[in-house]
Amino acid sequence: MQIQAIETFLMVYDTRNLSRASERLYVSQQCLSRQIRGLEAELGVQLFIRQKTGMLPTDVSHQIYPVLQEMMDRFEQARDICSTQECKAAPKLTIALSDGMSNYIDVSLLSELARDFSGSELVIEERPGVECIRLLCRGKVDMAFLLEPFDDTMLEHELLREDFGCIVMLKTHPLAAETGPVPFSALKGVKTVTGSNTNCAALHLQHYCEQSNVWPQYVANVTNLVGFINHLKRDDIVVTLLSCEIPHITNPDVVIRKIVDPVLMGKCHCCYRTSSPQRPLLRELTKRIKETYKSPENFE
Predict the structure, then answer these.
(1) How confident is the model at residue 53, as a pLDDT?
(2) 144 close to 126: Cβ distance less than 8 angstroms
(3) For residue 239, pLDDT beyond 90
(4) Residue 300 maps to a domain
(5) Residues 240, 232: contact at Cβ < 8 Å?
(6) Based on the domain organization, do 138 and 282 belong to the same domain?
(7) 50 pLDDT exceeds 60?
(8) How many domains does the chain have?
(9) String of DSSP letters for 30-50
């Protein structure tokens, strides 16, 4: 049982509504539904009755709610203890990366920049985007790297780079027959592999699906998309990813097509709290990071 599934259950139970839970957790409704279904399958019980007016908790939900709430509280306490211990050590700069962001950000280069500029050891934490925002707002991390969309109400942020969405498939796939970009509408019903449920690029794709009401047929969520592509053998699926991962693709049997109408721009931001005591330092560090990273060249 994953802590994120517990958090989703608690929020849906409290709000009785997937839409409101989605807004508070910064996660798509489809992703929340999958997490609830997964938790129900794991526990072997029905947790909610889906109604037009919302989500009605079952009797077993009422019984397990206090148990899961205690588990969540204990997890928060454990994390706070670990955070306190870290504060006793040498000066550190803590950066949270939204899940999957380490595929797009050169962590070693980031560490070098932080060490040379601030003289602090860099601590990298990769977590779901909603948790990055929560930690940032609570002052548990100094900076976060997030992919749009996200709630920036309490955050100051700088656009770091822009990557465009694309699909990768074997040369024998029907969509590979045409040259040039592929319209987003062409993905409707197409068997698709994307990142894990909390992966920032996968959530980015879901955002566009919700906006356009165009839904691929998801057949798998994998952690290492590039590794999956480099060993791709099936010619009936496409893989979605952002352009920054293209240089790591080595499979000679695949083709890459940019997605258009709309162009799926993955905008990565450096974020920090507007009230952070290290705000001047973070702003200058952000400036240097921004100078180092550049958006990829366009291609058709």
Answers:
(1) 84
(2) no
(3) yes
(4) no
(5) no
(6) yes
(7) yes
(8) 3
(9) HHHHHHHHHHHHHHTS--EEE
